[in-house]
Amino acid sequence: MEQLRPIQKRQREYQEQLLTELRDELAQRGITAVLIVDEKNRPALDVTDSRLRPRRVYVHLAFLWFYWGDQHDERVSCLRLLPAADRISA
Questions:
Q1: Residues near 52 by Cβ (< 8 Å), separated by ≥ 6?
Q2: How big is the CA angle at 71 (ends 67 and 35), to the nearest 5 degrees?
Q3: For residue 22, what is the enclosing H or E element?
Q4: Residue 1: pLDDT over 80
Q5: pLDDT per residue over 38-82, tens digit each?
Q6: What CA–CA distance (Å, rounded) separates 4 from 41?
Q7: Minimal CA–CA distance to 67: which of 29, 18, 8?
Q8: For the chain, what is the radius of gyration of the CA atoms?
Q9: Which run of H or of E encompasses 36?
Q10: pLDDT score of 2 more than 70
């Protein structure tokens, strides 16, 4: 694993914090989510939504989004955790 510079380390910690908070909120809804590090060394959540669709959720810090695809409806604000969990679990 490559060494992260101090700012990258703080960004990584913040991404992991946001993903952990989202994971906990999803768990309260009965949705299984696992915090992982992907093949590009990015933190993410592996989520199986209520329709049993697999999703890999990432954090985009510049826009403060959770995202799981490239479409407009496949992202949601990190600033409103409860609506984000609702949207991802649906």
A1: none
A2: 20
A3: helix 6-28
A4: no
A5: 999 999 999 998 888 899 999 999 999 999 988 888 999 999 999
A6: 11
A7: 18
A8: 13
A9: strand 33-37
A10: no
- Among 82, 90, 23, 20, CA closest to 52: 90
| Exposure class string for 26-64: b at 16+ Cβ within 10 A, else e | beeeebebeeeeeeeeebbbebebeeeeebebbbeeeee
Residue indicated by tokens 């992982």: 36
Q: Is the pLDDT of residue 23 over 60?
A: yes
Mean pLDDT of the chain: 92
In the chain, what percentage of residues exceed pLDDT 90?
A: 80
| Collapsed DSSP state (helix, strand, coil) of residue 60 | strand
